Automatic annotation (TrEMBL):
Transmembrane segments: 6-22, 34-51, 57-76, 88-110
Organism: Paenibacillus anaericanus
Gene3D superfamilies: alpha/beta hydrolase (3.40.50.1820)
Domain of life: Bacteria
Keyword list, A-Z: Hydrolase, Lipid degradation, Lipid metabolism, Membrane, Transmembrane, Transmembrane helix
Regions annotated as coiled coil: none
InterPro entries: AB_hydrolase_fold
Descriptive protein name: Acetylhydrolase
Length: 441
């Protein structure tokens, strides 16, 4: 929709400029009526939901409103043109208007209007956001001396019908807690409570419940980019990735412990009273997948883990003699690894070089480890970002040197992933059915 609106608006400006040159006039009255008509049309399409009102359209709406007001004032004043306009002036004015239009349309072009995947469950979904303060940790990404705060958003069944399994989600590097909203909604519609974390300074941005806005740490961005570009030696990569994981796992353990503690308090909010703490699953994308697998290994109260395209970095427990030392203890939980073509290529390259990666070792040794490859995908395909902003996906993939072309339909990818996620957690958290979906899709 954003592209269509931009093309139509650009055509109007170009046509108007050509008409002005042909008639050797600025066509103030015509220009004014077009401005007013354009705003009225935009307003009408918003009212009938052809354009779904959201933050993407606010800048354009403000621009069109200003132009419409200028048009009304111009019609009222009825000021006559005193001299014939120069062609250069008409062209310059048209280019200036196009530039303003591009700026006003940027949010709609960057974040196009889209239809979210349909939920298949029977429950209506509610949501709530909380910010927790960890009194045991001081924030290390700045010098404020304040305790670290972690914000989590919950998606849960709006209907009270007993208690439900809890799934805690960790986003990838530069991700946000909303990165897999379609998955959270699908799980909640089938009777799960999902809590997704924002990891401050690892998340692209975080807004806590007090309205404090925190951007991603620039040093963290550069470290991730440099690791993906192969700039560091393997020992440095080991040290950096474990530094990142420590932040993630501490956040996840803290939020899990806080949630569990709140479930014991009969005066706590509704969402906590809906949680069955005997049925806890973890899930994450990329670095969040690695953190989820590590927390799952370390805790006794987690029953299942899903890793979305993450390299299981926590399984590399040391670096000695120029090699990674992989954890030789069998992974104790059911774990589902859903991989894109990007990750499969990395594994193939490692095998060709004679390396044994932790992901493959777990798959070969753990009694309930599963691997799925969804074909025609890149690293960001297992999030909602390809729906929310295809342009941003391309920018991120290029900047961190990850992400080949995507051939599969993005709705097919997300719906296939969500089906696998639901079936896996139904099996290992609810004890419903068998999970045997190992292979290629």
């Amino acid at each position: 929709m954003g592209t269509i609106v931009f093309i139509l608006a650009a055509l109007i400006e170009i046509t108007l400029a050509v008409y002005c040159i042909a008639t050797k006039s600025n066509q103030k009255r015509t220009r004014s009526w077009i401005r007013i008509g354009t705003f009225a049309t935009f307003f009408f399409f918003t009212l009938i939901s052809v354009i779904e009102w959201s933050f993407q359209w606010k800048l354009l709406a403000a621009t069109l409103l200003i132009w419409a007001i200028i048009g009304v004032v111009s019609l009222i004043r009825k000021k006559e043109e005193k001299k014939e306009p120069k062609r250069v002036g008409i062209i310059f004015k048209a280019l200036a208007m196009l530039l303003i239009l591009i700026i006003a349309m940027a949010p709609a072009l960057m974040f196009p209007q889209y239809e979210p995947p349909q939920m298949t469950g029977s429950y209506e979904v509610a949501t709530a956001v909380y910010t927790y303060t960890d009194d045991s940790r001081i924030e290390t990404f700045n010098n404020s001396g304040q305790n670290r705060k972690v914000t989590a958003q919950f998606w849960y069944p709006a209907d009270k019908d007993g208690t439900y399994p809890l799934v805690v989600f960790s986003h990838g590097a530069f991700g946000i807690k909303d990165s897999n909203t379609s998955t959270y909604m699908e799980l909640a519609s089938h009777g799960y409570v999902v809590a997704s974390l924002d990891h401050p300074h690892h998340s692209m941005y975080t807004v806590d419940t007090e309205g404090k806005f925190t951007m991603v740490d620039t040093s963290f961005i550069q470290e991730v980019i440099d690791v993906n570009k192969g700039i560091y030696d393997e020992e440095t990569v080991f040290e950096l990735t474990h530094k990142w994981l420590e932040v993630r796992t501490q956040d996840m353990n803290f939020v899990l412990d806080t949630i569990i503690e709140n479930t014991k308090n009969t005066d706590s909010d509704e969402v906590y009273q809906l949680i069955d703490t005997n049925k806890i699953g973890l899930m994450g994308h990329s670095l969040g997948g690695a953190a989820s697998a590590q927390v799952g290994r370390d805790r006794d109260d987690v029953r299942a883990v899903i890793n979305l395209d993450g390299d299981l970095l926590g399984e590399n427990v040391d670096f000695r003699g120029g090699k990674y030392v992989i954890n030789d203890k069998i992974y104790p939980l059911p774990i589902l690894n859903i991989y894109t073509d990007d990750m499969m290529k990395l594994f193939a390259a490692a095998h060709d070089a004679g390396y044994i990666d932790a992901n493959t070792l777990i798959l070969d040794t753990a009694p309930k480890a599963f691997m799925v490859n969804i074909k025609g995908t890149n690293h960001m395909s297992l999030t909602d970002l390809p729906l929310f902003s295809p342009m941003l996906v391309s920018m991120i993939s290029n900047s961190v040197s990850m992400g080949g072309g995507v051939e599969a339909d993005k709705y097919y990818i997300i719906e296939t992933m969500n089906t696998l996620v639901l079936e896996f957690f139904d099996c290992y958290l609810k004890g419903e059915g068998d999970f045997d979906s190992e292979g290629t899709y």
